[in-house]
């Protein structure tokens, strides 16, 4: 039983093929792609740096949230064999790296770019890739 994952930093659509009948699952991310400084107006005074979290702190927080998201995606595909990873941005490569890091890189069939897709389009792409048309 194989699966396809359409993923970006906000959501993952997982489509598993089980004897021709697709099984679809969605996982939402809690990660904010570009964390911004809080507040509506610029901070005043010479202590601005102490009032705003450092950029590396915000980046570490984002990376931690994304890793939790990728781990949830990896957990949801544990019962599948090979996996096709598709998506529009960096998330597909980051998921691939996370799979390799947790010793599941052998399950990756391919990583391919893809724009926004509807659920039926994702199912058709996964079926065409694995030859289950």
Explained architecture:
It is a single chain. The protein is of the alpha/beta class and 133 residues long. It has one domain (2-29, 53-130): Nucleotidyltransferase, domain 5 (2-Layer Sandwich), CATH 3.30.420. 37% of the residues lie in helices and 25% in strands. The chain is built from four helices and five strands. The chain has a five-stranded mixed beta sheet, sandwiched between helices. A hairpin with a 2-residue loop joins β2 and β3 (21-28). The longest helix is centred in the middle third of the chain and has 22 residues, at 55-76. It is globular. The model has no long low-confidence stretch (mean pLDDT 83).
Q: Outline of this structure?
A:
With 133 residues, the chain is of the alpha/beta class.
Strand content: 15-25%
Give me the strand/helix succession.
EEEHHEHEH
Instruction: Please report the distance between the alpha carbons of the first and last residues.
Output: 14 Å
Q: Major sheet, described briefly?
A: 5 strands, mixed
What would the keywords be for this entry?
133 residues; alpha/beta; Nucleotidyltransferase, domain 5; five-stranded mixed β-sheet; 37% helix
